[in-house]
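Before a computer can learn anything about folding, someone has to put a protein's shape into writing. The outcome of that step, for a single protein, is printed below:
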Amino acid sequence: MEPNQNDLSSSRISRSYARAVLTVGAFMLVVLAAVTTTKQWFSPSNVYYKNAAPRLVAARGDLAAEEQNAIDVYKTISPSVVFVTSTQIHQEKSLFRFSAMEIEKDAGSGFVWDPNGYIVTNYHVVENSRDVIVTLTDQSTWKAVRVGTDPDKDIAVLKIDAPRELMPPIAIGTSSDLQVGQKVFAIGNPFGYDQTLTSGIISGLGREITSAANRPIKSVIQTDAPINPGNSGGPLLDSAGRVIGMNTAILSPTGAYAGIGFAVPIDCINRIVPHIIRGEQVPKPQLGVTTAEDHIVRRLGLEGVLILTISPNTTADKAGLRATRRADGGKLVLGDLIIAVDGEPVRTTDDLFRIIDDHKVGDTIKMTVLREGRKIEVDVKLEPMP
């Protein structure tokens, strides 16, 4: 007997109903489980712990010797490091008006030379400045007087009338015995963050940079201690806390720290600063000659430094050096071409300046010159610049 059609339909409906009930039931179980879990997750009884207390501090132990050394250097030297800001008058002109506005020109660092109020900094920090303000470690500010400068070495000396107790002089070291790899510290005001300590090593010695006066500064110290704008004029220190140089420049495509900084050696600073404080002209050796510009010499197909003129009665004149001159027929007769000094080749005026800067007034140098195609050696005593 065949099943009735109505019975089959009722059976299908029953099965569909049963499946729907099971599905709804399963869904409700999932929802119930989720609600239960959520309740447990956010339940205060599981999140909060009323007896919570600060963690116990672990014992630190002694500082490493290197750390303690850095701390001692900073504590000793930071009172001797100052912040230097300079301003100048900026003039604006137009067809209808003229206005003058005082603007901050530059900011840098400096260090106390002695308790009489003398401060040493970079020349380029105060170059062409109208007013210079020095901020001491106690945040007091003092208007400074510019005592004197040596642009060739990027050195300037300032003076303020601060109490002696606020002017602890910095300890002076020497730069003659430095070694590559030696630990160094720099203290300054990078980006205006005063009394910042950075550390590194001496990366190189005997480097050469160009001063604000476009003269080469020789025997410069290279360091990887981070130096940024605002560090200029601050001290570079050895691990004993003695100043061994003055931070003066960085090598960077962006103007910010890139791993290479330079410092003027303290032996150079210690020789020049006393002359400036005494009001004396810094003694600089010279030959008593004027020379042709390098590009003119190159245009003539020569290599060396060509003597154009010689001052009368100078040691160069007395030594028999020859200047460039006009012959009777108007023909130009070239003077002596300096090609070496004390056996060291001279190819440009910078080479000549660099060698002379290594000497002092009164030294005698042996110059090798080309004269009418012949090499001649001439001894010349260096004189002070007038």
Observations:
- The two ends are 139 Å apart (CA to CA).
- Residues 94-104 have pLDDT under 50 and may be disordered.
